């Protein structure tokens, strides 16, 4: 079994200065789960910048200095197990986290995709997709393509999801809407007098239909497929989710990076408990004899 040291990423890390503006820093990120790693003048790691925590949760204006928008995610130490790493990736809502030694020196980063790439050949991922749905999940969140962006934003804020499945009035899949795609309208710097300078009329944007912002290219699978099929699509295409559809292209579910990480954690715990139970039974049987 591989350990964290084997998959640590040490190069091509997005490094950000604390004196950069939030808008400039976020322009280097691609999704709401991305992170820029912030280092001070002495090249000491001091935190991360992330769209979810900097904009969606905290509502910092775009011209804020990065130093005032820092988020401090969970610390991952180099001796952590991979299941512990997976747990912290889920808890943090960030798919890129810093890896430190026990003296808190920055060693590199680990990403959800990098972790999953090195786990994809495990036998546990050869099972049917249905195993991911053995226990009740949160209801599928959808929006009609002709509904307003204002409604979509409301759904994002209340559901705390980063993506919404978009359907037409026949309930067929039309695409996916990402909160990150709307972020550029939330980070417009404030002008003189404290008012936000407008790239476009925000009220007009809120009234526009979702279909004007939807990504129509989405990856889909049937629920009868294998978990490894979803794995391969998500890793090869560098995406965070695969939508499950029926024969008529009605969305019936979604598999996310979080689902795959959670499945790995649950399997690891089950195997640990199975081994522990076997050892206890062996110990008790020897004690009787």
TrEMBL record:
Coiled coil: none annotated. It holds the Pfam family CBS. It comes from the Bacteria. CDD domains: CBS_pair_SF. PROSITE patterns: CBS (PS51371). Keywords: CBS domain. Residues 69-127, 136-192, 214-272 form the CBS domain. This is CBS domain-containing protein.
């Amino acid at each position: 079994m591989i350990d964290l040291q084997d998959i640590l990423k040490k190069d091509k890390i997005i490094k950000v200065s604390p004196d950069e503006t939030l808008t400039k820093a976020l322009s280097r990120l691609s999704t709401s789960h991305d992170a820029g790693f912030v280092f001070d003048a002495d090249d000491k790691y001091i935190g991360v910048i992330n769209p979810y925590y900097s904009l969606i949760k905290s509502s910092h204006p775009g011209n804020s200095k990065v130093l005032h928008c820092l988020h401090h995610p969970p610390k991952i130490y180099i001796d952590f197990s991979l299941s512990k790493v997976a747990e912290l990736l889920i808890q943090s809502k960030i798919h890129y986290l810093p890896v430190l030694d026990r003296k808190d020196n920055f060693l590199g980063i680990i990403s959800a995709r990098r972790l999953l790439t090195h786990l994809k050949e495990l036998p546990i991922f050869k099972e049917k997709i249905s195993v991911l749905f053995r226990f009740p999940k949160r209801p599928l969140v959808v929006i009609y393509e002709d509904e307003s962006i204002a409604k979509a934003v409301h759904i994002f804020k209340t559901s705390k999801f980063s993506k919404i499945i978009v359907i037409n009035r026949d309930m067929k899949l039309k695409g996916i809407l990402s909160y990150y795609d709307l972020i550029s309208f939330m980070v417009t710097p404030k002008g003189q007098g404290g008012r936000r300078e407008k790239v476009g009329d925000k009220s007009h944007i809120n009234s526009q239909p979702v279909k004007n912002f939807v990504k129509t290219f989405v990856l889909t699978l049937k629920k009868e497929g294998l978990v490894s099929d979803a794995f391969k699509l998500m890793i090869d295409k560098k995406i965070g989710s695969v939508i499950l559809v029926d024969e008529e292209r009605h969305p019936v579910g979604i598999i996310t990076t979080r689902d795959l990480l959670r499945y790995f954690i649950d399997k690891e715990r089950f195997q640990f408990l199975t081994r522990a139970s076997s050892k206890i039974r062996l110990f008790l049987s020897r004690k009787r004899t």
